[in-house]
């Protein structure tokens, strides 16, 4: 069982190595920070042979088996991390944007988290969209590409006018993350 971070290709290579040595292999991803491991709601993702997963399931708590492909656990992990960082980046940018007008982040958080997030990221609505994504069907006239392009242009223009994230390429945000809390 491997619970280290990696890529789907690395997980598949490890599974191949294990099989070549007569060993069973499960690849996994821990989806909570260390202090939350073992608590209710902790999510662990696993992929690899179902029979191996089933044999070791009891001590794993409430794990999710994603399929026989050993690369699926780390692929889901990476996809979910992408969602986490997109959401966090959006919140941080929004707080910085209203903060440029002297609005406290607390005030922004009340509206962003109390109203916007539950409406914009409604799980039932996203689940309904997922079916269309699988089928290549994207009906409706709410949220057209043109409307979203206009919204992105509006965000960029307003950010520039407010002096938020204007002098550097967006990827410079990575440098801020690398600084760590003591130097940021």
Automatic annotation (TrEMBL):
UniProt-listed Gene3D superfamilies: N-(1-d-carboxylethyl)-l-norvaline Dehydrogenase, domain 2, NAD(P)-binding Rossmann-like Domain
NADPH-dependent reductive aminase-like C-terminal domain: residues covered: 69-165
UniProt superkingdom: Bacteria
A Pfam family annotated for this UniProt entry: RedAm-like_C
Protein name: NADPH-dependent reductive aminase-like C-terminal domain-containing protein
Species name: Actinomadura namibiensis
């Amino acid at each position: 069982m491997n619970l280290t971070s990696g890529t789907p290709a690395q997980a598949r290579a490890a599974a191949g190595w294990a099989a070549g040595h007569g060993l069973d292999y499960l690849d996994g991803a821990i989806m909570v920070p260390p202090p939350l491991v073992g608590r209710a709601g902790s999510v662990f993702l696993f992929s690899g042979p179902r029979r191996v997963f089933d044999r070791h399931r009891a001590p794993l708590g409430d794990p999710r088996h994603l399929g026989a492909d050993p690369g699926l656990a780390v692929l889901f992990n990476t996809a979910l991390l992408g969602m986490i960082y997109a959401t966090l980046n959006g919140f941080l940018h929004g707080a910085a944007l209203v903060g440029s007008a002297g609005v406290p982040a607390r005030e922004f958080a009340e509206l962003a988290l109390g109203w916007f997030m539950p409406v914009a990221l409604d799980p039932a609505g996203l689940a309904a969209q997922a079916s269309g994504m699988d089928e290549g069907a994207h009906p409706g006239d709410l949220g057209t590409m043109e409307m979203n392009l206009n919204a992105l242009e509006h965000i960029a223009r307003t950010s520039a006018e407010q002096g938020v994230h204007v002098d550097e390429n967006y990827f410079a945000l990575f440098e801020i993350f690398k600084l760590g809390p003591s130097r940021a």
